[in-house]
């Protein structure tokens, strides 16, 4: 036998028990789950097993079945429920045969380890006499009846009077043995089951047992107990008695009831959570009202409220409160966090705070008088409602005077409700944001359509305006390398800041318009329009209307009112291109408009003030035109305030290579070409040309060349430098050539003498040795 078994047995080792146990005893000990913790050798060999086969195995391995057909439940189930058995059992032996045994099972407690075990003692059958012997055996009876921890009573089978009751019975029912012997359970108001038919059956048949699963007994104290009653007929000294075994299941039923109610409550809570979760997305006030109402009902709490933090979490204010009593509650009141730091700190730290006595708890004590006492609130359960980035607020459950404490289930439910509130708040925020977005989108659409309407109107009123406004100056467009053009730009910069009239003088294509835009774009008027009038391009009869506008019907063809360029340029700059072409009769009108800064529309009697800066440009020699009476002197003087002369391209050949590169890049991009190289020769050729059409001509030439070039090298087809007269090639000599020519000239003059006062070195102000080196380097030789 194992050491553990020995300990268990010694724990059970009352003197009586030892006497039962001898080498022939068929017995075993089962733990409450039915596992063998001890099995005697005779029982093992009777069933054909070895101890190790059964030890720690479940009794169900032996397939125990009740033999008694009146027994409603099987052997092991009955033992588990009633902790008791006295009757036959059939076991399946190891060889597959059945073995019927008389069994007596009772619950025992080990004094050693305080564990409970079922002690099962078996007798061989058929030996009815032995059965009697067993119960006749005084010691065995004592163990089975007197010392049993289960309440048991013996009745006379004839009169149903109590013959004996054990200690456990006395303790349970409350009567002592003396009070009950000779009485019936009915007399003592314990129960009246002996009126029922099963008792007759017990009388008539041998070894009959009966179970009452839903019995009720009343204790001496009148307290009612739910019990399972197990009855069996036993024979003592040849006389039949009725044994009653009482199994108290009151606690079990109460526990089952509690379990049922807990599960009912939990279902209710789940239903409530599902219902509330379904509300997320509805109007927030409605959601809050429903949440507080349903949460209060489900938690059986008198008051539930939702509080919201301000943006700095300095206070919370009540957003919604449910009150089962319908009193005026603290809707819309505020609690400042610095007034109640203990409350708020605990809430932020623990996220949930249950207070079973608000008047005593240090976290709520200091506001109990104001908030809890007047309303009879005894306990609270507060949960922090989390927001997306920071806490949104607090959910409060409040109970009036009640003994109920907040349970774990309550806390779980409250936390779930707080999560639903958080979801509802976030969804509401999203909805508001979406509405705002839709609104601003709608606003944008309406603004847009208003804008396009205005734009259309404006376009219709004056189709020039946009075109002119698009004339935006871009410094990157203007390249140069010459000193003379740099000088021009310096003048532009100086004059731009002023309001002075600028007169741009230069041949066609020299960049007058570009410069006019530059003046405007770096002037304080840059955000106002630059309006261009090409005096040469407008028919003579329309020029006045172009400049000053006209009223509808003022002349044939004036079908609408029209603004003139002066009005359009108001606040900005008016660029009068090709001013030399302005008809003579228009010149005094223009002069007046410029001088007076006012204009009069054709067909109108009113004059209109305008604030305009004038830039004029011409490729004509205006002085000559004045002399020849083609241009009015007074207008010339009025325009010639700040003349800027733009040199022709041939006078600034240093600009040519840079301009070529600039235009090559521009047109390569435009025509998707990959021109990268320009031969020095091409450059030289282009520099030696006299460019009557100036930069425009160069630009057009490069454009054509880029279009025609197929590889990385720019080829200028059919370009011939102009006739000798137009060439200024001689001016473009390399430095070496110039030096060579000059040294040669001086050497010739000095008759190739280098040293001395008459020598070339003296004339050239050089050291004779340096001159010699230079002569060598430049390959100058004395002619033979
Ligand atoms: N410095 C420059 N850098 C780059 N491109 C230039 C430069 N100067 C002029 N251009 C270009 O040369 C062309 C002619 O310039 P613009 O129209 O300004 O000359 P213009 O003197 O006003 O001519 P016109 O008297 O015929 O009206 C334009 O395409 C202009 O962009």
UniProtKB/TrEMBL annotation:
Keyword Nucleotide-binding appears in the UniProt entry: yes
GO biological process, one term: regulation of DNA-templated transcription
Gene3D superfamilies membership: 1.10.8.60, 3.30.450.40, Homeodomain-like (1.10.10.60), P-loop containing nucleotide triphosphate hydrolases (3.40.50.300), PAS domain (3.30.450.20)
SMART domains listed in its UniProt record: AAA, GAF
Domain spans labelled PAS: 13-64
Cited Pfam families: AAA_lid_14, GAF, PAS_9, Sigma54_activat
GO MF annotations in UniProt: ATP binding; DNA binding
Stretches assigned to coiled coil: 430-468
Protein keywords: Activator, ATP-binding, Coiled coil, DNA-binding, Nucleotide-binding, Transcription, Transcription regulation
Domain of life: Bacteria
Domain Sigma-54 factor interaction per the UniProt entry, residue ranges: 478-707
Protein name per the record: Transcriptional regulator, NifA subfamily, Fis Family
Native source species: Xanthomarina gelatinilytica
Top-level taxonomy: Bacteria, Pseudomonadati, Bacteroidota, Flavobacteriia, Flavobacteriales
């Amino acid at each position: 036998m194992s050491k553990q078994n020995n300990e268990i047995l010694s724990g059970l080792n009352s003197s009586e028990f030892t006497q039962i146990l001898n080498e022939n005893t068929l017995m075993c000990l089962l733990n409450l789950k039915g596992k063998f913790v001890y099995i005697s050798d005779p029982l093992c060999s009777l069933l054909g097993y070895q101890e190790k086969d059964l030890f720690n195995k479940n009794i169900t391995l032996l397939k125990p079945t009740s033999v008694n057909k009146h027994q409603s439940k099987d052997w092991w189930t009955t033992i588990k429920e009633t902790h008791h058995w006295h009757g036959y059992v059939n076991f399946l032996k190891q060889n597959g045969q059945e073995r019927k045994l008389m069994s007596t099972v009772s619950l025992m407690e080990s004094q050693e380890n305080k564990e409970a075990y079922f002690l099962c003692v078996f007798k061989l059958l058929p030996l009815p006499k032995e059965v009697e012997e067993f119960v006749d055996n005084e010691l065995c009876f004592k163990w089975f009846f007197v010392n049993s921890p289960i309440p048991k009573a013996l009745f006379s089978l004839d009169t149903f009077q109590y013959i004996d009751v054990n200690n456990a019975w006395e303790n349970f029912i409350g009567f002592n043995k003396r009070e009950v012997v000779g009485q019936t359970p009915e007399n003592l108001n314990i129960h009246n089951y002996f009126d029922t038919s099963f008792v007759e059956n017990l009388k008539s048949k041998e070894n009959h047992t009966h179970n009452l699963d839903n019995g009720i007994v009343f204790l001496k104290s009148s307290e009612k107990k739910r019990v399972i009653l197990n009855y069996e007929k036993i024979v003592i000294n040849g006389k039949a008695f009725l044994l009653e075994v009482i199994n108290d299941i009151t606690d079990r039923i109460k526990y089952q009831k509690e379990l049922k109610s807990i599960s009912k409550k939990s279902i209710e809570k789940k239903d409530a959570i599902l219902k509330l979760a379904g509300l997320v997305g509805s109007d927030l006030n409605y959601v809050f009202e429903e949440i507080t109402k349903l949460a209060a009902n489900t938690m059986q709490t008198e008051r539930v409220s939702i509080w919201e933090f301000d943006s700095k979490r300095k206070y919370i204010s009540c957003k919604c409160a449910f009150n089962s009593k319908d009193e005026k509650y603290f809707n819309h009141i505020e609690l400042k966090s610095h007034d109640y730091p203990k409350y708020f700190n605990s809430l932020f730290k623990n996220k949930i705070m249950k207070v079973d006595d608000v008047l005593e708890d240090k976290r709520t004590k200091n506001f109990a008088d104001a908030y809890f006492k007047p309303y009879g609130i005894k306990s609270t359960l507060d949960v922090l409602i989390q927001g997306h980035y920071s806490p949104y607020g607090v959910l409060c459950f409040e109970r009036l005077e009640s003994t109920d404490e907040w349970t774990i289930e309550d806390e779980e439910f409250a936390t779930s409700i707080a999560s639903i509130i958080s979801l509802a708040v976030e969804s509401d925020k999203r909805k508001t944001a979406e509405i705002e977005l839709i609104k601003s989108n709608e606003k944008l659409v309406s603004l847009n359509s208003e804008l396009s309407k205005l734009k259309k109107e404006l376009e219709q009123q004056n189709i020039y305006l946009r075109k002119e406004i698009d004339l935006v100056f871009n410094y990157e467009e203007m390249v140069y390398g010459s000193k003379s053009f740099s000088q021009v730009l310096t003048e532009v910069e100086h004059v731009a800041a002023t309001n002075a009239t600028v007169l741009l003088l230069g041949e066609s294509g020299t960049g007058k318009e570009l410069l006019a835009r530059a003046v405007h774009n770096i002037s304080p008027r840059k955000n106002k329009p630059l309006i261009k009038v090409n005096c040469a391009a407008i028919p003579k009869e329309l020029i006045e209307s172009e400049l000053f506008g006209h009223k509808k019907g003022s002349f044939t063809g004036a079908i609408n009112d029209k603004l003139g360029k002066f009005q359009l340029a108001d606040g900005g700059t008016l660029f009068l291109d090709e001013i030399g072409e302005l008809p003579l009769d228009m010149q005094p009108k223009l002069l007046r408009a410029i001088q007076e800064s006012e204009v009069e529309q054709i067909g109108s009697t009113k004059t209109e003030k305008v604030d305009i800066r004038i830039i004029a440009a011409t490729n004509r020699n205006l002085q000559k035109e004045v002399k020849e009476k083609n241009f009015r002197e007074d207008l010339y003087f009025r325009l010639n305030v700040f003349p800027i002369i733009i040199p022709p391209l041939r006078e600034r050949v240093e600009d040519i290579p840079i301009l070529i590169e600039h235009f090559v890049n521009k047109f390569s991009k435009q025509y998707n070409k990959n021109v990268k190289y320009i031969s020095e020769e091409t450059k030289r050729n282009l520099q030696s040309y006299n460019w009557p059409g100036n930069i425009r001509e160069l630009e057009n030439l490069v454009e054509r060349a880029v279009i025609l070039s197929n590889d990385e090298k720019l080829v200028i087809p059919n370009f011939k430098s102009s006739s000798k007269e137009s060439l200024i090639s001689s001016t473009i000599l390399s430095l070496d050539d110039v030096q060579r020519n000059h040294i040669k000239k001086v050497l010739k003059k000095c008759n190739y003498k280098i040293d001395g006062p008459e020598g070339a070195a003296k004339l050239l102000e050089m050291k004779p040795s340096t001159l010699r080196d230079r002569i060598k380097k430049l390959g100058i030789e004395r002619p033979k």
